[in-house]
User: Which sequence fits this backbone?
């Protein structure tokens, strides 16, 4: 992972820039319209936050309740400590049932555990069936947005990709491209021995898994093959079935601005005797993979409230410039900046908590009101403390600079002396009220933008003069 390098490359990519602005602008406008039209939107967000806070604080109890109720409905529950264990559980289920091909609906958790590569290494074919995921699987890439995985691709890119990988003529109309994908995928659904999905929510009270989508591919994935495996992060829980009446509108309106999504599947166990269709086996894999560690940290625990709507990405001035691939892993945008370092280990993603202007646009749109600036500052502090402990020169210099700064600004006489000295010292670089081309290390600032010069008559001096003349106090 190299956020600085990859984001610089993304900013220089004109095609990516226009794709990012087009799509995120559309999502932003739709979310704004939907939230404006929903009475008491802010109160609903507050209630959702309280429910998630309560659920995460009692996660152990609700997970056991979920397990009991899934079993009661005839499903099987598996616990996966990490990505490898989760992959092995799913591969084992496939092998025991002689499965040769798997259809998948969109799931960030399966991306997180690298399931496709794991299945392929085990000799099992995995086919993504969400259109965006299908496109990026053909391209050999990873998703660049939580709900719009191929946001970085233009219509022209997709036409070329289909022509190259599927051997179809170049076609420019989205309807034609969708038709090609649909025809290919129908056969995959019918031939698959197993369907793998994620889960938007798991309801402890009833053992129900909830999947929200617009294409119908998740419903086919979970009903056509004889086995359905759902992979769910342990934080995706809701205590009661009735909570869905709050969370479903919040999720859908924050994500796409729709009043409701086209398909909402509520899955409680496998097919019953009287059912006409549905899988004969239902497995729920509960994934930890670092989440317990987040749960243990009271300062950053609220990262687990996320319901993966993607609104924070669409509204983040950084994501809108650098796109999803710059974040180097599955989750991108503001949620990626807080969750990736915690799931991967902060040493593997130390740049991400700094990939934010702390403007708070993400917090303002988040349906569960995650306080991003607070969590980001906490993570930044951890990164800096670690660097200091390991004796990294830049971190030590930064700490010394801030100590020096504190000493100056908390002592009036020293502060005034520093201002006087700066006024003289800045003269070789001062042009029209700003400083340009300062020497290293200040050049790291002035290479990109001007630095305001210290005023020739600082505010304190002006104030004292006004004061002496009997001006405002
Ligand atoms: S952090 Fe909030 S806004 Fe971002 S994806 Fe999660 S729920 Fe949505």
Assistant:
């Amino acid at each position: 992972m190299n956020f600085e390098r990859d984001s610089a490359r993304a900013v220089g990519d004109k095609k990516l820039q226009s794709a990012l602005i087009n799509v995120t602008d559309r999502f932003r406008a739709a979310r704004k319209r939907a939230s404006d039209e929903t009475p008491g939107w802010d109160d609903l967000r507050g209630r959702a936050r309280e429910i998630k806070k309560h659920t995460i604080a009692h996660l152990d109890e609700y997970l056991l309740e979920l397990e009991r109720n899934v079993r009661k409905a005839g499903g099987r529950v598996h616990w996966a400590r990490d990505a490898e264990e989760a992959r092995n559980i799913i591969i084992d289920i496939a092998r025991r049932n002689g499965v040769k091909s798997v259809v998948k609906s969109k799931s960030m958790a399966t991306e997180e555990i690298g399931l496709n590569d794991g299945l392929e290494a085990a000799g099992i074919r995995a086919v993504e069936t969400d259109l965006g995921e299908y496109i990026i699987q053909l391209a050999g890439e990873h998703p660049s947005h939580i709900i719009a995985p191929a946001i970085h691709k233009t219509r022209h890119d997709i036409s070329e990709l289909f022509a190259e990988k599927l051997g179809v003529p170049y076609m420019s109309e989205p309807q034609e491209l969708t038709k090609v994908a649909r025809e290919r995928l129908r056969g995959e659904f019918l031939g698959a021995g197993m369907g793998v999905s994620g889960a938007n929510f798991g309801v402890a009270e009833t053992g129900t898994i909830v999947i929200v989508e617009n294409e119908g591919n998740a419903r086919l994935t979970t009903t056509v093959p004889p086995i359905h495996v759902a992979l769910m992060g342990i934080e995706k829980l809701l205590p009661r079935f009735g909570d869905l009446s709050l969370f479903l509108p919040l999720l859908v309106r924050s994500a796409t601005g729709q009043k409701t999504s086209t398909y909402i599947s509520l899955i409680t166990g496998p097919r019953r005797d009287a059912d006409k269709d549905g899988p004969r086996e239902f497995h729920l894999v509960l994934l930890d993979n670092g989440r317990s560690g987040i749960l243990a940290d009271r300062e950053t625990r609220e990262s687990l409230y996320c319901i993966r709507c993607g609104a924070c990405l669409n509204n983040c001035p950084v994501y809108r410039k650098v796109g999803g691939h710059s974040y180097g892993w599955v989750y991108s945008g503001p949620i990626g900046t807080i969750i990736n370092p915690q799931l991967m280990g902060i040493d593997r993603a130390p740049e991400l908590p700094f990939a934010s202007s702390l403007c708070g646009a993400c917090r303002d749109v988040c349906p569960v009101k995650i306080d991003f600036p607070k969590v980001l500052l906490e993570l930044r502090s951890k990164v800096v403390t670690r660097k200091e402990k390991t004796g990294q020169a830049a971190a030590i210099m930064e700490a010394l600079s801030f100590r020096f700064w504190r000493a100056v600004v908390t002592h009036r006489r020293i502060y005034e002396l520093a201002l006087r000295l700066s006024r003289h010292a800045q003269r070789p670089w001062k042009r029209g009220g700003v400083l340009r081309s300062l020497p290293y290390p200040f050049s790291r600032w002035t290479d990109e933008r001007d630095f305001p010069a210290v005023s020739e008559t600082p505010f304190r001096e002006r104030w004292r003069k006004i004061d002496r003349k009997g001006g405002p106090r």
Observations:
- The mean pLDDT is 94.
- Residues 146, 254, 306-312, 334-335, 365-368, 370 surround iron/sulfur cluster (CB under 6 Å).
- The domain at 3-132+189-292 is CATH 3.40.50.10420 (Rossmann fold).
- The chain is about 50% helix and 10% strand.
